[in-house]
Amino acid sequence: MTVQAQLVRFALVGVVNTGTYYGCYLALLAVLPYIAAHIAAFALSMVGSFFLTSYVTYRTRPTWRKFLLFPLTNLANFTVTTAGVYLLVDVLHFGSRYAPLLAAAAAIPVTFAVSRTIMLRPDSGDRHGSRAEGLTAVSGRPSAPPDDAAAPPLAPAARPAGRDR
Q1: What rounded mean pLDDT belongs to the chain?
Q2: Nearest Cα to 96, choosing from 19, 44, 22?
Q3: d(CA 34, CA 38)
Q4: In whole angstroms, what is the distance from residue 124 CA to residue 139 CA?
Q5: Phi, psi (5° rounding) for residue 64?
Q6: Helices (DSSP H) in 87-164: which residue ranges?
Q7: Model confidence at 12: pLDDT above 80
Q8: How far apart are CA 69 and CA 66, in angstroms?
Q9: Which residues neighbour 141 within 8 Å (Cβ) at sequence distance 6 or greater?
Q10: Among the listed residues 32, 48, 99, 111, the one whose alpha carbon sits nearest the alpha carbon of residue 74
Q11: Partner residues linked to 63 by β-bridges
Q12: Are the C-beta atoms of 133 and 146 separated by less than 8 Å?
């Protein structure tokens, strides 16, 4: 899969994740100050984002190692969006309902670069150094999983149709 295809998939996942985040943010904004609502909505949407990023963007299987590192990929996003929300609301006097959307747009290039680095890095037990741990780009079928006992998958691998155990 090319970097361009990954970027398109990343953008689509980002739209879904932003919608999830924003829906949570608006719901929480009714009972929390805007920064607290932002932080809580961000944390809730990050779990869904991890799985979408694994399966849709990079077509790699989720592992515990990646799950544990994924918040680091969002640290840049969190920093840019939180600073952006504060700047837009408190300094530039934008409405708190729309500030997160503008701040999220500014974080896209940074988040893509960091997430790509973590999600495509081979797991420590992968002796072959292969980055293709999930669906192969050519066949679309699951590739042989690497021997990575240190980073077990979070979800069972999908089996091709018609095969029995």
Answers
A1: 79
A2: 22
A3: 6
A4: 25
A5: -65, -40
A6: 99-119
A7: yes
A8: 5
A9: 135, 160
A10: 111
A11: 153
A12: yes
Helix (H) or strand (E) holding 162: none
55-59, long-range: CB < 8 A, 24+ apart: 55/134, 56/9, 56/12, 56/13, 57/6, 57/9, 57/10, 57/13, 57/115, 57/119, 58/1, 58/6, 58/9, 58/116, 58/119, 58/120, 58/134, 59/1, 59/134, 59/135, 59/137
pLDDT at 152: 53
Q: Which amino acid is at 101?
A: L
Positive or negative: CA dihedral 75, 129, 60, 152: negative
> How far is it, in rounded angstroms, from Cα 49 to Cα 70?
9
Mean pLDDT of 14-28: 92
Distances (CA, A) of 8 to 58, 111, 155: 11, 14, 25
Per-residue pLDDT of 31-40, as tens digits, reads 999 999 999 9
Per 3-state DSSP, the chain is made up of helix, strand and coil in percentages (nearest 5) of: 60, 0, 35
Percentage of the chain lying above the pLDDT 90 cut: 44
Least confident of 64-68, 77-81, 116-120, 122-126: 122-126
